[in-house]
Specification:
The complex is a heterodimer of chains A (264) and B (270).
Chain A lengths: L9 E11 L5 E11 L3 E5 L6 H8 L7 E6 L12 E4 L11 H12 L3 H14 L15 H13 L5 E5 L7 H18 L2 E6 L2 H7 L2 E6 L4 E7 L8 H4 L2 H20 L4
Parallel strand pairs in A: 3-7, 3-8, 5-6, 6-7
Antiparallel strand pairs in A: 1-2, 1-4, 8-9
Helix pairs in contact in A: 2-3, 2-4, 3-4, 6-8
Chain B lengths: L2 H37 L9 H10 L1 H35 L1 H16 L2 H11 L2 H26 L3 H9 L4 H39 L8 H10 L3 H30 L12
The chains are: A alpha/beta (264), B mainly alpha (270).
Chain lengths: 264, 270
């Protein structure tokens, strides 16, 4: 075994976070979670376990009922729009705007003019592999391409933290694999911190440094599994015994988490 | 990609959509002609289509002036309805209090028959203003109602996205709500176009011989009193054509504004 490299500092922590909705559904209860700089963390759990709620709390789109979300590191305002990129379950593009205009949106809301932003936008559109589609409208794109636009939009502000809410759940498997590979390549190239919500064991093992398995109703951390396989990961990893082993371990943890909570 | 194929499939269909109404119109006019000719109906009871066409030509100086008046009133009414309806919808969207205070009165204005309001307006306003007010009253509500619906049916995730990036109220309105509401807004305007014409006509009729008006509806009323039935028909034909042209103009505007992105403006293969 190699000696452990020093752990990077956490950039954010959820401490004893609870969220109860107006209809008195307890989505989260005493959730503790740390996210470290440069890490790829997956929140894994069945639907309705509050993973998405946790993500919305981190993004300040929703306020916790109990506990708090603590940001650390430099003095950057956590709500600073530069700090966070968010990719929703659906591509969530503006249908009336071209790919360029959709990716431009976060910068436009900052007050940056289109001419000044154009090189940045062109670069990020190229990074997600859509260089030829800047003038295309979302309806003319496939589901996978729309998700790429959504990813480009999240990356255009060069955020510290990228939050992804089951972004590839609605895609077919072939497209999902390709997007997984491209996402990993981007993550390695850009060095972002990613919090990725998924209900797929296979996807979470393939992508993450660390998987946080959550219990359903109320959502709480049940287990944390470190995936120590080196990057870059590719088809070889996907078909390896090591991958299968991690999947088995994660599946077992997920099954135990579900038995622990209310039956689905 | 699917462009050329879609056009190839759409072409015979499009041809039928134009050709069939024209054939029906020709048949109808022909039947009308036969009924009049066979029964020897006198023109002061029912003029034949040929006579109506001739009247259209001989009375063109009078009729065209009236057409212009009605058309201008309608377009002014429509423009005011668009401005008023959209402004009010945006105000309602920005402030619940304003909405709660004013919406019931917008509804009352809409449900009270304009025929009943017109005589009153004619007492208090100069005739031209009264006619315009009637056109506005009937046309503004569909714009208001549809725009309100559009502003309220924005994708919630997009709303969240705008919040995430700290968008101001104005930015959310300008870059999200108004574009999202555009299809509904244009739908409202399409209805409003026809209604503005109806409003203008109703007010002109109500003004009747009392007014010094010269719109198409006034011509119809006037010709009625004088038993100039062919001219009544000619004016009616012009009114109908005005309505049709306004409808198509609004549809064209709608299509041009939405052709890139909205489902309603995109031709699909069957």
């Amino acid at each position: 075994m190699q000696p452990d490299p020093p752990k990077p500092p956490p950039i954010l922590a959820l401490r004893g976070v609870g969220k109860t909705f107006a209809n008195s559904v307890v989505a989260l209860d005493r959730l503790d979670l740390e996210v470290r700089e440069g890490e790829f963390v997956s929140l894994l759990g069945p639907s309705g376990c509050g993973k998405s709620t946790a993500l919305r709390l981190i993004a300040s789109l929703s306020e916790p009922s109990r506990g708090k979300v603590v940001w650390s590191g430099d003095a950057r305002e956590p709500r600073n729009s530069h700090a966070i990129g968010f990719v929703f379950q659906e591509p969530t593009l503006m249908p009336w705007a071209t790919v360029f205009a959709n990716v431009f949106l976060p910068l436009r809301l900052e007050g940056i003019d289109a001419r000044g932003a154009a090189p940045r936008i062109a670069r990020v559109i190229e990074r997600v592999g859509l260089a030829d589609f800047a003038k295309t409208y979302p309806r003319e794109l496939s589901g996978g391409m729309r998700m790429r636009v959504s990813l480009a939009r999240a990356l255009v502000t060069d955020p510290r933290l990228l939050l992804m809410d089951e972004p590839f759940a609605a895609l077919d498997e072939i497209t999902r694999f390709r997007l997984n590979d491209d996402l990993l390549a981007l993550w390695q190239a850009l060095g972002k911190t990613v919090v990725f919500v998924t209900h797929s064991v296979f996807e979470s093992v393939y992508l993450s440094n660390r998987i946080v398995v959550m219990t359903p109703r109320p959502g709480r951390v049940f287990a944390e599994i470190a995936i120590d396989a080196p990057y870059p990961r590719d088809e070889t990893f996907r078909t390896s015994a090591e991958y299968a082993g991690y999947c088995r371990k994660t599946s077992q943890a997920l099954a135990a988490a579900m038995a622990h909570g209310v039956p689905a | 990609m699917k462009g050329p194929l879609a056009t190839r499939i759409a072409r015979p269909e499009a041809l039928l959509r134009v050709a069939l109404p024209i054939v029906m119109l020709a048949l109808g006019v022909f039947a009308w002609h036969l009924v009049v000719a066979i029964n020897g109906i006198p023109p002061y009871v029912l003029p034949g289509p040929a006579l109506v066409a001739r009247t259209l030509v001989t009375d063109w100086p009078v009729l065209s002036a009236s057409l212009l008046v009605t058309l201008l009133t309608t377009l002014q009414g429509l423009a005011l309805a668009a401005a008023g309806g959209i402004t009010l919808a945006v105000l309602f969207n920005q402030s619940r209090l304003v909405e709660y205070s004013l919406y019931p009165y917008a509804v009352i204005l809409q449900v009270t028959p304009v025929v009943a309001i017109a005589p009153l307006l004619l007492i208090y306003l100069p005739q031209q203003a009264a006619v315009l007010a009637c056109a506005w009253i009937v046309a503004f509500f569909p714009v208001l109602a549809n725009t309100t619906l559009g502003l309220n049916s924005v994708d919630h995730n997009l709303v969240d996205l705008f919040r995430l990036y700290g968008a101001s109220r104005w930015q959310a309105l300008r870059h999200l709500k108004l574009p999202a509401a555009l299809p509904h807004m244009l739908g409202g305007l399409r209805i409003a176009g026809g209604l503005a014409l109806i409003g203008a006509v109703v007010a002109e009729i109500a003004a009747g011989s009392a007014g010094a008006g010269s719109g198409l509806a006034y011509r119809i009323a006037e010709s009625g009193y004088r038993l100039e039935i062919p001219r009544m028909f000619a004016a009616l034909v012009l009114l109908a054509m005005t309505g049709i042209i306004i409808y198509f103009a609004m549809s064209l505007v709608s299509h041009l504004a939405l052709r890139h992105w909205h489902e309603s403006a995109i031709a699909r293969e069957p």
